[in-house]
């Protein structure tokens, strides 16, 4: 495993080395050489593409001829297969005649053979018949009929008859290809046959023809296509040749232009490297719109910027030299000022110590005031909390009153709605009363009908006695129904009176809820709201008192902190002034070092001015 990893790393390093070598090789080429290589590669690529396109055209032509051959062969196969199937249909008719007893089997076979022997299609199409054993039954009436030709071979030694019989015995028949001379000739040509068996007589019927003409026809049909391909090849070759010539000419012009432009740029940069900024070899390229125009403008801008920089450095070097002399004078004066500052800081330190002692005493007094204010603020917060609790109880009371009033209003609405629904339902009693009236009418009609029936029964004599009995029963039943309806009407009147009484009482109860109960709830709510307003006033007062106490407490906190800060600042100020005095001594020492550095800077500015003087630049504003 380790060996494989080492080998893999070795291959990777080798590949990286080769890539670096290739890059290094191309990096050393001049631009002219690189462009020539690029042009040559483009020309070779165009030639390769042209060759590939021509080869593709040849392949397309061959595929076209092959497709045409396939179409012709498919049509030919369909034709000869249909001819054989037609012949089998004719043989089946003779076989049916034998089956129906019209003739003997031998007579039927002979009739079928004679029929097939005389059949033709196209210019030279004919049929033959062989048995499964290879005995020929029909073949243009030649001498071979009646003989066994199972071992017959074509010009290449292929036993064609065996395969014709074998392929014909397949379920859908089969095709056989072989070579055979044409009539009157000795040269063999390709021939394709189709054969299919007729099982009842174990015959294999076949037909076929020469297919060399199909190949010639396919080529002839694609003659126009071939001419188009040939013209296209010539046109493509000419186009590629013209394109390569144009590519060479354009590449030569581009290479020449690039070489001249790069040469001018190199000459300009070499002059600038030598310190000469007075000449400009890129001026003729300034107005160009290509990359060399951009390069010329960039070199011009760089030349101008560097010239200005050099001029500016010359001026600044003189300024620095002059400033160095001024700094020497200032540093000497600074040393005198530092000595005065050191004495003043010592006096300031003593004053700071006295201030620190005074602020310590004031800080203790502020602490006592701070404690008293804190106690006042605590008591005011307790009062505010009590007022808040009172307000909470007032809010809860108002909430309960509103909820009870809403519940009473809801109950009133429900009672009113239920009462109206009940009164509406009670109207069904009126319907019962009306129905009882209808029933009374029916009873009257029934009595009348019973009377008529009795009269008719009396007229009928003995024959109508039974009918008279039924009429009597109907009359009795009608009388009972009338009495029942009278009782229903009496009960209905009593129910109606009870419902009216109940409705009146319910309306009194509803008026009581609307007038008295609702008025009481409104009074309770006003009292609760006044209670809430009073608690709010007390709470506001306590909150203001607490706020003032808190503000006073905060101010005392600030005063206490300020006094502490003043005391601390005084102590720190005393320490700071002492440190200032110490640092003043250090600054005095460092100012001497600064003076030495300024002297060195002046010397460096003189040396820089001498170096800048070597550059030649145009006068710039």
From TrEMBL:
4Fe-4S keyword on record: no
Transmembrane segments: 35-54, 235-255
Membrane topology listed for this record: Multi-pass membrane protein
The family this protein is said to belong to: Belongs to the methyl-accepting chemotaxis (MCP) protein family.
InterPro entries associated with the record: HAMP_dom (IPR003660), MCPsignal_dom (IPR004089), sCache_2 (IPR033480)
Stretch forming the signal peptide: none
Protein's name according to its UniProt entry: Methyl-accepting transducer domain-containing protein
Organism of this sequence: Eubacterium plexicaudatum ASF492
Gene Ontology biological-process annotations: signal transduction
